[in-house]
Structure to design on (812 residues):
C-alpha cells in the first residue's frame, strides 16, 4: 500500500504560498515562505484566536499576557513583540450570516446589532472612560461602512467573492483596534495595524496565495520604521496590489498563518499561538475522554496531524516557521503558565520513546474504488485516473492500491463523489464496455483514522498493534495506507465506528498501564443503586491492585438519562439522574452507547423494562459486553434468546451474561440446563416462584382481603417498582419462561397459559390498580374459604409439563 500526503498547493480553501517566481520542486519541499536569515526585528510574535478575544474577561487575559511578555522582553527602546489577533469570538460567523441574509434580501440588521453589542460591551468594560466616545465613534464608522456594503448586496441579490472578502475584514479590524486601545493605558506606544498594508497576495479573494518576497519586504520596512511601537495586527486579512482596495483573505487558519508569516519576515525567535486549549493533544478531547498533552513535536508531525483534522493547528501555518527554523508554541490563554506544546524541527530525548505522537480523524469521506482485471500490468491507468480527477478539481485525501494492481481506492469529499464517478466512468468508458474494467464503486459513510509520529519510522509492530486492537473491538478496516516515510498510518473504517476506533487506539498507544472499564447502567431503582454501590466500593481496589479503572459514562431511567465521557461519580450518579431536567427515551440512550462504544465497555441492565433486550445483539456487535439481571429482557423471543445464549462466555468477542433474581437465590437454571444436557430426565416442574403472591395468599389465609394483602405487600417492599408486574402475573410468567427454557422447552411468553379472572390487566392504569384489585376480593375470598374447609391452603402454582411441551399458571 502507499500513501500520498497533501502539499500546500493541494488544499482547497486553505492559504497557500507563492513566491514571485514559481519555485523549483527542491525549494518547494523545503517549505513555504523561505527567506535568508536577516537581523531580528521582533523577538516574538504572539497570535490570539477568536475564543481568546470573545469576552471582556478573556480579553483581560490577553492584555495581561501581552503586558507581562512586553515587560519581560523589553530591553532599550525597541518593542520586543508583535501581536496578531483574530476577530472576537463568533463575529466572523456573524458576518457570513449577514452576507447570506443580504444576498437573499432578508433582514440582516439584527445580526449586525448582535455584532455591534458584542464590541460595545468590551469597549464599555475595558476602554478608559475618557477614550470611550472616540473608540465608539470609530466602531460606528466601521459598522456604517459594513451596513452600506450589505445594503448594496441586498439590492443586487448577490455577493461576489471580492465583496465577501471585504466584509470578512471587519471582524479583525474592529478587534485589533479595540484591543490596542485597551493596552494604551499601560503601554502608551501601542497602535493597531491593518495587515492589508503588509501581507500581499494574488487575486484569489477568499483563499489567497501569499506573495512571500513582497510581504517580507513590506513587513520588515513597516516594523523597522516603527521600531518602538507595539502593534496589534489583524490576522487572516490581506490584499492584492497597491493599497487596501483589493481585499483578500487567507482562508481557514488564516490568522495563525498571518502570525507565522510575520514571524518569518521579522526573523523572530519564537511564534506563540494562544488558543483555548493548553497545546496539542494526542486525540480530540471531544471524542476521547483522557487525551494526553503532547509536550513537543516536529513540524512534520504537526502538519500530518493538521491535514487529518487536528483543529488546534493548520498546515500552512507551519511552512514559514519551519523554513526559517523558528520554533512555535501552542498555549492556552486561560492557562498562561501551562507548558503547552512546542513545535520545532527536532524533539528532545524526553519524547523519543513515543512511537505514535497523535491520533486524529476525518469524519466523513467517500471511498471511490476502480477495479478490474484489465488494470493488472497496464501502464498509465493511475496517470489517467488522477489526471481526470485533477481536471475536475477533485481533491484526493488518501490513495491505496494493492500490489496485484487489480484495484485502486481513493478517499474524496462526499460532496464530490458522484462527480468523481461520472468523470472516471467517462475516462474509462471504452475499457468498461469491453469489461476490462468493472467500473467505479462508491462506499459512503466512511472515516479515516490516522496515527502520526516520527517514532514510527523503522519501528517494528506499530501497524500490527493498530490492526489487532481494532479487530479485538470488532472494527472492520476497509483500506490501509502508509507512506514510505512511515510517519503516517491511515486506515479507512465505517463512520459509525470512528469514535470507538479513536478511543481503542488511544488506549492501545497511550493508556496501556491502566485499562479503563467504561460502564453504562440502565435502571434507577434499588438494583441499580446496589450495583453502583458495589462498583464505588471496589473501584479503588481494582485500580490499585489490578490496574483497572471504572469510568461510569452514562445512566438512564425510563424517562431520562445523564452522560459524561469523562466519568460520572459512582456515588452521586442516581442523584444526578434525578436532578436531570431533560427527558429522553431509553432507545436514544442505547443508540448513544452503540455509537460511542469504547474498548472494554459494559452495558449493565438493572431495569425491569422490555426496552433493552432487542438492542443486546446490536450492542454486542459493536463490541459492548452486556450484563443483565432484567427478567423482562431475559424473557425475550426464543430466537433472540438462543442467539444471546450462544454469545455467553465467548472468548474472542464481547459476551452476554444474564443473572436474574431467580439465579441469585438458588442456582436453579444452571442445574436444569446440566440435567437437560445429559439426558431428558425431567418430566415436569411445579413451582411457586412469586414471593409477592405467596405473601399475599398467606395473608388471605389469615383473613385479610386480597386487595388489602396486596397493599401490605407493596408497603413492605415485596413488589417490583411497578406493582403491575406482580399483580398482572407478568413477573411470575417471565420466571416460568426462564425455567421452561432451561428445562429444554422452546417457548415464548404467549405459550404460558394464565388463569382467567385472577390478575389485573398488565396495561391497567396505575391510578386504577387498587380498584382492579378490589374487584377480585369476593372471588378469591370464596376460594380461600373452600380451601380452609378441606384443610388446605390456597397458593398460586406454576406447572411445566416437559413431556407435552406446555406450561400454565393456576391457583391450587
Amino acid at each position: 500500500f502507499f500513501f500520498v500526503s497533501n502539499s500546500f498547493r493541494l488544499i482547497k480553501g486553505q492559504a497557500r504560498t507563492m513566491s514571485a517566481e514559481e519555485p523549483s520542486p527542491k525549494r518547494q519541499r523545503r517549505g513555504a515562505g523561505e527567506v535568508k536569515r536577516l537581523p531580528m526585528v521582533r523577538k516574538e510574535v504572539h497570535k490570539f484566536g477568536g475564543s481568546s478575544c470573545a469576552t471582556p474577561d478573556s480579553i483581560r487575559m490577553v492584555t495581561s499576557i501581552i503586558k507581562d511578555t512586553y515587560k519581560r522582553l523589553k530591553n532599550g527602546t525597541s518593542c520586543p513583540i508583535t501581536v496578531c489577533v483574530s476577530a472576537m469570538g463568533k463575529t466572523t460567523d456573524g458576518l457570513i450570516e449577514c452576507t447570506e441574509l443580504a444576498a437573499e434580501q432578508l433582514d440582516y440588521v439584527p445580526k449586525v446589532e448582535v455584532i455591534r453589542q458584542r464590541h460595545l460591551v468590551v469597549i464599555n468594560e475595558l476602554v478608559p472612560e475618557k477614550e470611550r466616545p472616540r473608540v465608539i465613534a470609530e466602531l460606528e464608522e466601521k459598522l456604517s461602512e459594513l451596513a452600506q456594503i450589505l445594503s448594496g448586496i441586498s439590492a443586487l441579490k448577490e455577493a461576489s467573492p471580492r465583496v465577501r472578502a471585504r466584509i470578512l475584514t471587519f471582524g479583525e479590524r474592529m478587534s485589533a483596534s479595540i484591543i490596542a486601545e485597551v493596552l494604551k493605558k499601560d503601554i502608551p506606544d501601542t497602535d493597531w495595524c491593518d495587515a492589508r498594508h503588509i501581507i500581499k497576495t494574488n487575486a484569489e479573494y477568499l483563499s489567497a496565495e501569499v506573495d512571500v518576497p513582497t510581504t517580507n519586504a513590506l513587513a520588515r520596512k513597516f516594523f523597522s520604521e516603527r521600531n518602538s511601537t507595539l502593534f496589534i495586527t489583524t490576522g487572516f486579512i490581506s490584499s492584492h496590489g497597491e493599497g487596501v482596495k483589493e481585499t483578500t483573505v487567507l482562508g481557514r487558519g488564516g490568522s495563525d498563518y498571518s502570525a507565522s508569516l510575520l514571524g518569518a519576515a521579522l526573523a523572530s525567535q519564537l511564534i506563540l499561538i494562544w488558543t483555548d486549549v493548553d497545546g496539542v493533544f494526542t486525540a480530540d478531547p471531544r471524542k476521547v475522554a483522557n487525551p494526553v498533552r503532547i509536550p513537543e513535536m516536529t513540524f512534520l508531525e504537526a502538519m500530518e496531524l493538521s491535514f487529518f483534522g487536528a483543529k488546534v493547528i493548520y498546515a500552512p501555518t507551519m511552512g514559514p516557521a519551519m523554513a526559517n527554523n523558528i520554533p512555535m508554541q501552542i498555549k492556552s490563554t486561560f492557562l498562561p503558565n501551562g507548558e503547552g506544546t512546542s513545535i520545532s524541527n527536532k524533539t528532545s530525548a524526553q519524547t523519543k520513546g513515543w512511537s505514535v505522537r497523535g491520533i486524529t480523524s476525518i469524519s466523513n469521506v467517500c471511498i471511490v474504488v476502480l477495479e478490474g482485471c484489465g488494470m493488472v500490468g497496464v501502464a498509465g491507468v493511475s496517470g489517467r485516473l488522477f489526471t481526470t480527477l485533477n481536471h475536475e478539481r477533485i481533491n484526493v485525501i488518501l490513495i491505496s492500491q494493492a500490489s496485484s494492481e487489480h484495484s485502486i481506492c481513493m478517499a474524496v469529499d462526499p460532496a464530490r463523489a458522484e462527480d468523481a464517478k461520472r468523470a472516471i466512468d467517462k475516462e474509462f468508458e471504452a475499457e468498461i464496455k469491453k469489461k476490462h474494467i468493472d467500473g467505479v464503486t462508491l462506499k459512503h459513510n466512511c472515516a479515516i483514522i490516522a496515527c502520526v509520529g516520527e517514532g514510527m519510522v523503522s519501528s517494528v509492530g506499530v501497524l500490527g498493534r493498530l490492526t489487532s486492537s481494532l479487530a479485538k473491538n470488532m472494527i472492520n478496516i476497509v483500506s490501509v495506507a502508509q507512506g514510505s516515510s512511515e510517519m503516517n498510518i491511515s486506515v479507512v473504517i465505517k463512520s459509525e465506528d470512528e469514535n470507538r476506533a479513536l478511543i481503542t487506539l488511544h488506549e492501545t498507544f497511550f493508556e496501556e498501564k491502566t485499562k479503563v472499564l467504561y460502564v453504562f447502567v440502565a435502571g434507577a431503582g434499588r438494583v441499580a443503586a446496589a450495583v453502583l454501590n458495589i462498583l464505588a466500593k471496589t473501584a479503588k481496589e481494582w485500580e490499585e491492585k489490578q490496574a483497572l479503572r471504572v469510568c461510569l459514562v452514562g445512566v438512564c431511567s425510563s424517562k431520562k438519562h445523564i452522560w459524561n465521557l469523562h466519568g460520572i461519580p459512582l456515588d452521586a450518579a442516581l442523584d444526578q439522574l434525578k436532578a436531570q431536567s431533560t427527558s429522553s427515551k431509553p432507545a436514544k440512550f442505547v443508540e448513544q452507547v452503540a455509537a460511542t462504544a469504547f474498548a472494554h465497555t459494559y452495558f449493565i441492565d438493572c431495569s425491569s423494562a422490555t426496552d433493552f433486550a432487542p438492542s443486546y445483539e446490536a450492542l454486542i456487535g459493536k463490541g459492548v459486553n452486556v450484563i443483565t439481571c432484567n427478567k423482562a429482557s431475559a424473557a425475550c423471543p426464543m430466537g433472540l434468546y438462543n442467539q444471546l445464549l450462544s454469545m455467553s462466555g465467548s472468548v474472542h468477542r464481547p459476551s452476554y451474561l444474564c443473572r436474574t433474581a431467580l439465579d441469585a437465590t438458588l442456582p436453579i437454571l444452571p442445574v436444569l440446563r446440566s440435567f437437560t444436557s445429559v439426558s431428558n430426565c425431567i418430566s415436569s416442574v411445579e413451582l411457586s416462584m412469586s414471593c409477592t403472591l405467596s405473601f399475599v395468599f398467606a395473608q388471605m389465609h389469615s383473613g385479610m382481603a386480597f386487595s388489602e394483602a396486596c397493599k401490605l405487600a407493596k408497603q413492605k417492599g415485596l413488589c417490583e417498582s411497578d406493582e403491575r408486574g406482580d399483580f398482572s402475573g407478568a413477573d411470575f410468567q417471565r420466571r416460568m419462561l426462564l425455567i421452561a427454557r432451561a428445562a429444554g422447552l422452546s417457548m415464548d411468553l404467549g405459550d404460558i397459559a394464565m388463569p382467567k379472572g385472577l390478575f389485573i390487566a398488565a396495561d391497567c392504569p396505575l391510578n386504577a390498580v387498587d380498584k382492579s384489585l378490589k374487584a377480585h376480593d369476593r372471588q378469591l375470598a370464596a376460594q380461600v374459604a373452600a380451601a380452609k374447609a378441606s384443610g388446605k391452603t390456597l397458593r398460586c402454582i406454576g406447572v411445566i409439563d416437559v413431556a407435552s411441551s406446555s406450561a400454565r399458571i393456576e391457583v391450587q
About this structure: The two ends are 74 Å apart (CA to CA). Confidence is low (pLDDT under 50) at residues 1-33. DSSP finds 29 helices and 28 strands in the chain.
